[in-house]
């Protein structure tokens, strides 16, 4: 089969119904709407309700993305969920989604790179499509960080929200697609943003629970400083790899952690702030879900049209960071039903060779 590019042909997101406004936190910790808004840009965020989890939200987002792509779950080759708040240690959240949507012939696994998980998952799915390993992939960023928040710690509990965003990536002969992906990390700074207990280093016991070690701990201002520098570096590298000038980027979709981080990144890149997509005021920091939710809202708001260059930039715990340049494709007009006869014949021949090869 000829080398194909990976294009996004479906997208969808889910935000839980329960809204937590800044004023709701005034009843829990010593804080106020003015401090939270001025320091973060956040007005409200969503928290998962009873019975909701990372997999249930991921499943809702996945169904919307598949419907938009007009792709049956049974025709999916791969599901990747990017998350640091899985339903269980195992099975993978992707397997729970696979079962819920009935993707009977799909592989499924999770990727954990904190807030960089979606960009990481997109990069892996893109590489597998370009290599011809899979024809398509459902890539999801989903988080329920509210379940890891210490509601007595005012420096973290006000920051995070829950939600899920999904995209369908498909191999295409179109000349557009994911044009570059840059992934970086620095594990030496892991303890600036982490959940200390509950893993194999400090398994859960009464003392870890009493010490509130199962909640997110963060050294906020150090994370802030490194986030800005790393996101700028990754953005510049992704642009250079894609051979795309910053001036050709129609929309920058950064990880939605803090409006001041996004402003600082735009300023350092000398990129116009009106071309930066921001929705942190309504969702807070949804970690791996933030970029796919923002992407969905950008499309809904008509801010992306076919051929537009988009720059995704993320930073998260680990530390991990990364960026990707892609050319927006959108709803496909190369409908499966309207592929050229030659293309269909090539695909059938490719499938036949694949089937005969192991004999
Ligand atoms: N309400 C009122 N006061 C507060 C609150 C609050 N909610 N939280 C902290 N403060 C106080 C602090 O106690 C401190 O008081 P002090 O001066 O008396 O000691 C003061 O406000 C300033 O605190 P800083 O931490 O210096 O505030 P800063 O301006 O750095 O803002 C924030 C804090 C919003 C957390 C910021 O540092 C930030 O956004 N950091 C980056 C977060 C991020 O990007 N995370 C990455 C991804 S997340 C992931 O991967 C899962």
Shape: globular
Which ions, cofactors or small ligands are bound in this entry?
A: acetyl coenzyme *A
Q: Provide a count of the helices.
A: 12
Which bin fits the share of residues in helices?
Answer: 25-40%
Largest β-sheet summary: 5 strands, mixed
Please give the alpha-carbon distance between the first and last residues.
20 Å
What do we call the CATH homologous superfamily? Answer: Thiolase/Chalcone synthase
- Average pLDDT taken over every residue: 93
User: In the CATH hierarchy, what is the class?
Assistant: Alpha Beta
Instruction: Kindly state the number of beta strands.
Output: 13
Could you explain how this protein is built, in words?
- This protein is an alpha/beta fold and 359 residues long.
- The chain has one domain (1-352): Peroxisomal Thiolase, Chain A, domain 1.
- Helices cover 35% and strands 22% of the residues.
- β12 and β13 form a beta hairpin.
- α3 crosses α4 (93-101).
- Bound molecules: acetyl coenzyme *A.
Concise account of the structure shown:
35% of the residues lie in helices and 22% in strands.
Keywords:
disordered C terminus, globular, Peroxisomal Thiolase, Chain A, domain 1, single chain, alpha/beta, 13 strands, 22% strand, 35% helix, binds acetyl coenzyme *A, 12 helices, 359 residues
